[in-house]
Amino acid sequence: MKSTIKMAGLIGIGMTLALSPFSAGAADKAGSRDHPLFNRMPDFHIDNYEEKEFDVYDKFKDSDGRQKAVEGRKYHISYYIDRGATKPSDAQIIRNFTSAITAIGGTVLKEDSTNAYMRLEKGATITWVHLRTKNRGEGYTLNIIE
Predict the structure, then answer these.
(1) Going along the chain, which residue ranges are E strands?
(2) Per the count of CB atoms within 10 A, which of 13, 87, 99, 143 is most buried?
(3) Is 39 helix (H, G, I), strand (E, B) or coil?
């Protein structure tokens, strides 16, 4: 009887741990959200989020590789891989976003092994996107200016 109670207790603890948020991945930072242009990579959560009504982003590069300042509504969204998930390569992250932007009519202006600079023009709205991968696939950051 005592062993049955112990076994039931161990099963209950195991179920609690298996259903905890840590096994399903980390929660997004409070108040954060994905930008409507992009779906996040599978098994990633938002680690840092900042949205400003108006700001300048001076680290954007044009198609010639020249640094360019762009201004407007700014989103800074940082993603990290969930614990236990398989990391994608930097190339896989970059290709995911460059394919997404070109599929909706955008342009990839400049790309290297850890960065992609993209632009989307829809009507009167121009959206600038800088994607930067981190730690060989452990994370990535999107800086988006509308």
Answers:
(1) 44-61, 67-81, 107-111, 115-122, 125-134, 139-145
(2) 143
(3) coil
Collapse the DSSP code of 108 into the 3-class scheme (helix H, G, I; strand E, B; otherwise coil) and give the result.
strand
Pairing of strands 115-122, 139-145: unpaired
How far CA 72 is from CA of 8, 69, 82, 102, 144, in Å, comes to 58, 10, 31, 22, 9
CA dihedral 23, 42, 32, 93 (to 10 degrees): 130
Which residue in this structure is represented by tokens 């398989």?
Answer: 86
Query: Token pair for residue 85?
Result: 């998930």
Contact between residue 46 and residue 78 where contact means Cβ atoms under 8 Å apart: yes
CA distance 16 to 91: 37
Gyration radius of the chain's alpha carbons: 20
What confidence score (pLDDT) does residue 13 get?
Answer: 39
Instruction: Report the phi/psi class of residue 51: left, alpha or beta, with left for phi > 0 and alpha for psi in -120 to 50.
Output: beta
